[in-house]
Amino acid sequence: MTPAVTKRTETNPSTGGHDGRGADYASLLRAAQGGNQAAMERLLMKAQEIAYRFSLLVCGHADDADDAMQEALLKTYRHAAQIKEPAAFRTWLYRTVKNACLISRRKRVDEPARLHSLDEAAMAPDGSVQRIDVEDPGRRPDQVMENSRLRQSLHRALQTLPPESRLIVFLREVEGLSTREVATVVGISEANVKTRLHRARLSLRRHLEAP
Amino acid sequence: MKKTASDRCRSLLEQLSKYIDDELTPAQRRSLSAHLRRCPCCQTMAESLQHTVEACRKAGSARLPADVRTRARARIAMLLAADAGQRART
């Protein structure tokens, strides 16, 4: 039997990440620097989206998300024009978001840490689910429910990881940064990223497989 | 077919992430693929690890909740309007 394992490739580290997302950021930045307002708006939205996901998945504090998004927005807007190497913009953005989230967290050090899931964030005060906004139009309800269960399990599993491993999984797996970009953002070697990522994957797998 | 992990399985476990990330040499890849075809235990592990990676990727495709997106757009509009106003004054 052929193993049902699909390959995941590392793309050009100079553009960064897989799926061409690093190149997207670089071209958006170039357009924004050239005075294209729509490009600037998309860039500012991307910065806030990253800050939101980071707040929820890495920091585990939905309450901090607005502060982190505001900080990421302002820093991106103020510094976008000064960035000389568009290819390096993506790692700059993730470092900025990481710092913005940590600053938001320090302001709330008295609050207990907890990992929220995107599904929990979508829960209304009366317990009804009102804001599941996942990009899966046309999916059957059972598939949506299955995805929702999977995400909740994943968030619980992420919570069990040491903070730095959670950050590495977030950057590499969720956000799709290349190993080199993750190493730059976290400040460790590429070899260290790979080792920690492998251990984190095994740990996540154990938690996801647990009954 | 063997059903339990051997020393060979344990040594190959270290290569599974590289296999998923396509970082093995062609010879290593052929060797691991051949082992996975023979060893249900390792094949299950490889598939399970791949599912874990895919679950993480799906989390990255979730869009912002509608109200969070609305607030994000409003922040951008305010920032750009304030900046345009400041430039008009100078």
Which helices and strands appear, and what pairs or packs with what?
The complex is a heterodimer of chains A (211) and B (90).
Chain A lengths: L20 H13 L3 H23 L5 H15 L9 H18 L11 H4 L19 H19 L3 H12 L4 H8 L3 H20 L2
Chain B lengths: L6 H7 L2 H5 L5 H13 L1 H20 L6 H24 L1
Describe this entry's structure for a reader:
The complex is a heterodimer of chains A (211) and B (90). Chain A has 211 residues and is mainly alpha-helical. Chain A has helices at residues 21-33, 37-59, 65-79, 89-106, 118-121, 141-159, 163-174, 179-186, 190-209. Chain A has a domain at 14-116: Rna Polymerase Sigma Factor, Chain: A (Orthogonal Bundle), CATH 1.10.1740.10. Chain A is globular. Residues 9-19 and 109-138 of chain A have low confidence and may be disordered. With 90 residues, chain B is an all-alpha fold. Helix content of chain B is 77%, strand content 0%. Chain B has helices at residues 7-13, 16-20, 26-38, 40-59, 66-89. In chain B, helix 3 (26-38) crosses helix 4. The model of chain B has no long low-confidence stretch (mean pLDDT 87). At the A-B interface, helix 2, helix 3, helix 6, helix 7 and helix 9 of A face helix 2, helix 3, helix 4 and helix 5 of B.
